[in-house]
Automatic annotation (TrEMBL), chain A:
Recorded family membership: Belongs to the binding-protein-dependent transport system permease family. CysTW subfamily.
The keyword Membrane belongs to this UniProt entry's keyword annotation: yes
Name of the gene: cysT
Membrane topology, record value: Multi-pass membrane protein
Protein name (Swiss-Prot/TrEMBL): Sulfate transport system permease protein CysT
Species the sequence originates in: Pseudaminobacter soli
From TrEMBL, chain B:
InterPro entries recorded: CysW_permease (IPR011866), MetI-like (IPR000515), MetI-like_sf (IPR035906), Sulph_transpt2 (IPR005667)
Pfam families with a match to the protein in the record: BPD_transp_1 (PF00528)
Subunit annotation: The complex is composed of two ATP-binding proteins (CysA), two transmembrane proteins (CysT and CysW) and a solute-binding protein (CysP).
GO cellular component terms, A-Z: plasma membrane
Keywords tagged on the record: Membrane, Sulfate transport, Transmembrane, Transmembrane helix, Transport
Domain annotation ABC transmembrane type-1: ranges: 67-273
Protein name: Sulfate ABC transporter permease subunit CysW
Membrane topology: Multi-pass membrane protein
Entry-linked CDD domains: TM_PBP2 (cd06261)
Molecular functions (GO terms): ABC-type sulfate transporter activity
Residue spans crossing the bilayer: 21-47, 67-90, 102-123, 143-163, 203-229, 249-273
Originating organism: Pseudaminobacter soli (ex Zhang et al. 2022)
TrEMBL record, chain C:
Keyword vocabulary terms for this entry: ATP-binding, Nucleotide-binding, Sulfate transport, Translocase, Transport
The protein's name: Sulfate/molybdate ABC transporter ATP-binding protein
Domain of life: Bacteria
Organism: Pseudaminobacter soli (ex Zhang et al. 2022)
Organism phylogeny: Bacteria, Pseudomonadati, Pseudomonadota, Alphaproteobacteria, Hyphomicrobiales
PROSITE patterns, A to Z: ABC_TRANSPORTER_1, ABC_TRANSPORTER_2
Signal peptide: none
Length: 273, 298, 338
């Protein structure tokens, strides 16, 4: 190990560990402890109840749909922002961050107002027979909104830094635009896309504020898992709340692990022998 | 044969006018529906009954108290979080110690956890069902359903914000400058303030701005630990919910418009700081490094 | 394939990179575009490739105007300065890329066979499964060449092909590239700022300065008969003397230099270290420094007027700082001063 030349290790590491310990690790530990104290049967009964299973289904499916939507839209948006110039581009670039900056509750009521049957878009859509608010489609839209910047912001810098010579080389070898995009550009974006997708998906799985207004929150139909945990809490059923929250927690950890693995695989070509 | 009007550059992939136009149109259309429309509808609703109604709703004591709670939370949580972010970045980038990678991962954890999980977790520490709850009640210390709980929950969800801006930047800057300063006889604090801080101030501010926006806007985690007591423990986002569910649409959107204005200020600050080189520019790239041409001896 | 450039002009924003360059490259020739940075040599190469469009003038491939043919249909093999290997593809996939995306459909076996052939040609057998990051710089350079050759280009274009390599790797690859060229007979144009590289490799050297061709010819022609002070200095170490010429003899620093072909008037005279003899002639000089090198001694001398010259002497020469003698200029490139 390198000899320590600089001062401040004890102080800075002390503050860091204290903060991480008290603010992050202690509550998560308490949650896991609480969930573990349930005993395997009770735990399993709670997390596999019909209502819980239905909530997983609607959460995961909506999150997946929102992520796929953002994969396409985010890639297109990043592409347009990097490769083309048009009036107002800088404004568009700045406003892409709105979903991060806007409090989720505010986003929730705004989207609900827009997509409610009497709203700007809702009235129009309901004429076409499409209901958005108070359906899983509404959940999907709220998730798509809150997780929108992730894919744009992970892909954009990679696209900016893509060596133009790679494209020129592919062109000089006779590749068509479609072939070059599919075989050269897209594969080089895969690691960034993966990172963006997993961040967006994780965010959608855990999103609460933006969704509860638009979702309708009907058990078995439009009730997301985070809300179910919240409801159990309001019913003073702390054990059930702990169990369901632990499912969300474990899912988040699993997502982290899977993401790291996929990322390492996608980047395997950069490893030196 | 000489040509007069030629395009300056051969077309790149996707430069065909049809592709270009349809992509821009697609992006602008979807962006207008998904991002711009919510922004517009907030202000339209907030002012739907005129400015005086807007002003009156803002001036309600409950709303004013919610604003106070939100500002107070930010004033406590953001500085503490910033201090932590700096300490963590200093420890992680200036020293090698076992468990460093793990620590980096743990700091990032709140970023991928549902805010509801954070709230529930805090309940099991300080709530009556929790580890310290009974002892706290015996000592008559109120953490949950009060400002301290709100601050703690906010600190959890924003824990990575400053650190994640500073760590990659300070990693890239290395230790040379600090080592040089120390070798010239500067103390640790002196080194930090006159060598390190000037180089990281924009990134730090960037983290602070994002952290502040999240603290002021946090909903899920705070709604679990605040107890939603009107006029007492409601922050502004919680107050928005309360008014909305009370069918006080104008009031809800008026309160929401304050938070929206904050979001817009945040975005402007972000753009300004990005011009100073903070944010994306300092973060590591999620792609393979370009294959260098330089001979590598094997 | 014969290539003709006819008064080609290219301007970037306000900066004019290439001023009306005309050039003919015979089929099968190996040509070097030599010049300092900013001389427009890379821009010319990129215009031949179709990676840049000329503002005016035309580029002919054979008798056909290629000016407006897009790069993907031009049939050129381009080796980029930093190779531009696709980092996510193996060496074999890189080489196969052009064949896979080609309009001419080839079978899988045909492609595999061709890749094997090319790997053998560039002496990289067995490295087909490596990624570009897993091989050395010299190997990457050869992959880039194999990739460019895979599509059977009519013209091979190389942008500073050896610029990023170590000196000894560079020398080997240079000889090897010449062998490949002689074997395939493909018209080849390469860009370099290294005069040694250009002289070593090319059939003909085209020297550029500020977007204009200042001289072109075989290495022998440009070395023996440089047509300007710029070319003389650019091709190798040269020191400059200035003096008046009267009837074929220039007076410089207390002595004379024979310049038979020059008219009377002021002249500038360039001398290289190997052009000088110590202990002959009539130019007084004092040794200020002796630098020892493996192949001889480089002696730095000062003339009466303060000018510094350098000359090369055999390793066994006994000479030291402070020695005074006269010098003779045996050969020089002299130009009248306007």
């Amino acid at each position: 190990m390198r000899r320590r030349v600089l001062p401040g290790l004890t102080l800075s590491l002390g503050i860091t560990l204290l903060y991480v310990g008290l603010i992050v690790a202690l509550p998560l530990g308490a949650l896991i402890f609480k969930a573990a104290s349930l005993g395997p049967e009770d735990y399993w009964r709670i997390i596999s109840s019909g209502r819980a299973l239905a909530s997983y289904r609607v959460t995961v499916l909506s999150a997946a749909a929102a992520t796929v939507f953002n994969l396409v839209f985010g890639l297109a948006l990043a592409w347009v922002l990097v490769r083309y110039s048009f009036p107002g581009k800088r404004l568009v670039d700045a406003i892409v961050d709105l979903p991060f900056a806007l409090p989720t509750a505010v986003a929730g009521i705004a989207l609900t107002t827009l997509f409610a049957p009497n709203g700007w878009f809702g009235s129009w859509l309901s004429e076409a027979g499409i209901r958005v608010a108070y359906t899983p489609l509404g959940i999907m839209i709220a998730m798509a909104f809150t997780s929108l910047p992730f894919i744009v912001r992970t892909v954009q810098p990679v696209l900016e830094d893509l060596d133009p010579a790679l494209e020129e080389a592919a062109q000089s070898l006779g590749g068509s635009d479609v072939a070059i995009f599919r075989k050269v550009i897209l594969p080089l974006l895969v690691p960034a896309l993966l990172a963006g997708v997993s961040l967006a998906f994780a965010r959608s799985l855990g999103e609460f504020g933006a969704i509860i207004f638009i979702a309708g929150n009907q058990p078995f139909e439009t009730e997301i898992t985070a809300l179910l945990a919240f409801i159990r809490l309001e019913e003073y059923d702390y054990q059930a709340a702990a169990a369901i929250a632990s499912v969300l927690l474990i899912t988040a950890f699993a997502m982290l692990a899977v993401t790291n693995f996929l990322q390492a695989r996608a980047l395997r070509y950069t490893a030196r022998s | 044969m000489s040509k007069y009007l030629r395009k300056a550059k051969p077309p790149r992939v996707g430069d065909a006018p049809a592709v270009r136009r349809s992509l821009i149109a697609f992006v602008l259309l979807v962006g207008a529906v998904l991002i711009l429309a919510p922004l517009v509808v907030i202000f339209v609703q907030a002012f739907s009954q005129g400015f005086s109604t807007f002003a009156r709703t803002i001036a309600q004591p409950d709303t004013r108290h919610a604003i106070f709670m939100t500002v107070a939370t930010a004033l406590i949580a953001v500085p503490i979080n910033t201090a932590f972010g700096i300490a963590a970045a200093w420890a992680i980038t200036k020293f090698d110690f076992p468990g460093k990678r793990l620590l980096t991962v743990v700091i990032e954890i709140p970023f991928s956890i549902s805010p509801i999980v954070a709230g529930v977790a805090y309940l099991f520490v300080y709530g009556l069902q929790g580890v310290f709850g009974p002892a706290l009640q015996a000592a008559d210390i109120k953490i949950l359903f009060a400002l301290p709980g709100i601050v703690l929950a906010s600190m959890f969800v924003t824990a990575p914000f400053v650190a994640r801006e500073l760590i990659p930047l300070m990693q890239a800057q290395g230790r040379d400058l600090e080592e040089a300063a120390t070798s010239l006889g500067a103390s640790g604090w002196r080194t930090f303030f006159s060598v390190t801080l000037p180089n990281i101030r924009w990134a730090m501010l960037y983290g602070v701005v994002l952290c502040n926006a999240r603290v002021m806007g946090e909903f899920g985690a705070v709604s679990v630990v605040s107890g939603n007591i009107r006029g007492q423990t409601n922050t502004l986002p919680l107050h928005v919910e309360l008014l909305y569910h009370d069918y006080q649409t104008v009031g809800a959107f008026a309160a929401a418009s304050i938070l929206t204005a904050l979001a817009l200020v945040t975005i402007v600050a972000k753009v300004i700081l990005e011009h100073q080189g903070a944010g994306r520019a300092g973060r590591p790239m999620l792609a393979g490094p370009a294959v260098e041409a330089k001979e590598t001896h094997q | 394939m014969k290539i003709t450039l006819d008064t080609v002009v290219k301007t970037f924003d306000t900066f004019r990179a290439v001023h009306g360059v005309s050039l003919e490259i015979e089929s099968g020739e190996l040509i070097a575009l030599l010049g300092p940075s900013g001389s427009g040599k890379t821009t010319i190469l990129r215009m031949v490739a179709g990676l840049e469009y000329a503002d005016s003038g035309s580029i002919l491939f054979g008798d056909k105007d290629a000016t407006d043919i897009p790069v993907r249909d031009r049939g050129v093999g381009f080796v980029f300065q930093h190779y531009a290997l696709f980092p996510h593809m193996t060496v074999a996939e890189n080489i196969a890329f052009g064949m896979k995306v080609s309009k001419r459909k080839r079978s899988r076996e045909e492609i595999a066979t061709r890749v094997t052939e090319l790997l053998a040609l560039v002496r990289l057998e067995g490295l087909g499964d490596r990624f570009p990051t897993q091989i050395s710089g010299g190997q990457r350079q050869r992959v880039a060449l194999a990739r460019a050759l895979a599509v059977d280009p009519r013209v091979l274009l190389l942008d500073e092909p050896f610029g990023a390599l170590d000196a000894n790797v560079r020398r080997d690859l240079r000889r090897w590239l010449r062998e490949i060229h002689d074997q395939l007979g493909i018209t080849t144009l390469f860009v370099t700022h290294d005069q040694e590289e250009a002289l070593d490799l090319a059939d003909r050297v085209v020297i550029l300065e500020q977007g204009r061709i200042v001289q072109e010819g075989t290495p022998e022609e440009v070395c023996r008969r440089p047509n300007s002070p710029f070319v003389t200095k650019f091709l190798g170490d040269a020191h400059r003397l200035v003096g008046p010429v009267t009837s074929g003899s220039a007076r410089v620093a207390g002595g004379t230099v024979a310049v038979p072909s020059l008219p009377d008037g002021q002249a500038e005279i360039f001398v290289r270290p190997a052009d000088l003899s110590w202990g002959e002639g009539d130019i007084p000089a004092e040794v200020t420094r002796v630098i020892d090198r493996p192949d001889g001694r480089r002696v730095v001398v000062r003339l009466e007027d303060g000018t510094t010259l350098e000359l090369d002497m055999p390793p066994e020469t006994r000479i030291e700082k402070g020695d005074r003698q006269t010098l003779r200029v045996r050969r020089a490139h002299a130009f009248p001063l306007a």
